[in-house]
């Protein structure tokens, strides 16, 4: 049995963050826009979530979906959102930034770490977009990040156990490798055994029931509300701490 494996919930709304804390998660990565892989949540969402949960809160700092190559205006927006997260009492941020060739933009990432101050910095799945994961690993370590969120360059982390194990071994105590994407209670124990990773990330999400009694079927932009499944979060944590 290990009591040291942690689970971070990717929460796409305040309700999911509350579920994460109730179910025993160690940390929340707070995002907006689940269909597009997550973007920066609003000021109001971050503030309200910080007031409702006591566990670690890491808003994602990502001004838009798509690539992680940002122009000066977008980089300025990220700066403001980082300072806002600091002011609201967040424990850290999740962020990624790349150069036009796909490599980690170390100059800008170092500036982000400086702006974060005492907050922790998770380098998110921009890592999975880099052409050489081991160079990216060293680059991110050199920038002062505390953690890398990665699927092992696959669409789902359980499909990349071999590479994730190599990354964990290469990283050693220098940085945390946190597998994420496709993490479920049915596969997380095996992945933990295969990789020796100590932290894992997932949304455990399901589509929330729509309580509205009238829907205009001619309108197609309702979308869905996703919420973390409390029982699934509990089962994932249970599998990690068997």
Low-confidence stretches: none
Q: Please trace the helix and strand order, writing H or E for each element.
A: EHEHEHEHEHEHEHEEEH
What is the number of independent domains? 1
- The CATH architecture classification is Alpha-Beta Barrel
Major sheet attributes: 8 strands, parallel
Care to describe what's here?
- The chain has 242 residues and is of the alpha/beta class.
- It has a single domain (6-240), classed as TIM Barrel, CATH 3.20.20.
- The chain has helices at residues 14-23, 43-52, 72-87, 106-116, 133-143, 161-171, 188-195, 230-240, and strands at residues 6-11, 27-30, 56-61, 92-95, 120-123, 147-150, 176-179, 199-202, 205-207, 226-228.
- The strands form 2 sheets. An 8-stranded parallel beta sheet has the order 7-6-5-4-3-2-1-8.
- It is globular.
- The relative contact order is 0.16.
What descriptive keywords fit this protein?
TIM Barrel, alpha/beta, eight-stranded parallel sheet, 36% helix, two-stranded antiparallel sheet, 242 residues
In short:
This protein has 242 residues and is an alpha/beta fold. It has helices at 14-23, 43-52, 72-87, 106-116, 133-143, 161-171, 188-195, 230-240; strands spanning 6-11, 27-30, 56-61, 92-95, 120-123, 147-150, 176-179, 199-202, 205-207, 226-228. Strand 2, helix 2 (43-52) and strand 3 form a beta-alpha-beta unit.
Topology, pairings included?
Layout lengths: L5 E6 L2 H10 L3 E4 L12 H10 L3 E6 L10 H16 L4 E4 L10 H11 L3 E4 L9 H11 L3 E4 L10 H11 L4 E4 L8 H8 L3 E4 L2 E3 L18 E3 L1 H11 L2
Parallel strand pairs: 1-2, 1-8, 2-3, 3-4, 4-5, 5-6, 6-7
Antiparallel strand pairs: 9-10
Helix pairs in contact: 1-8, 4-5
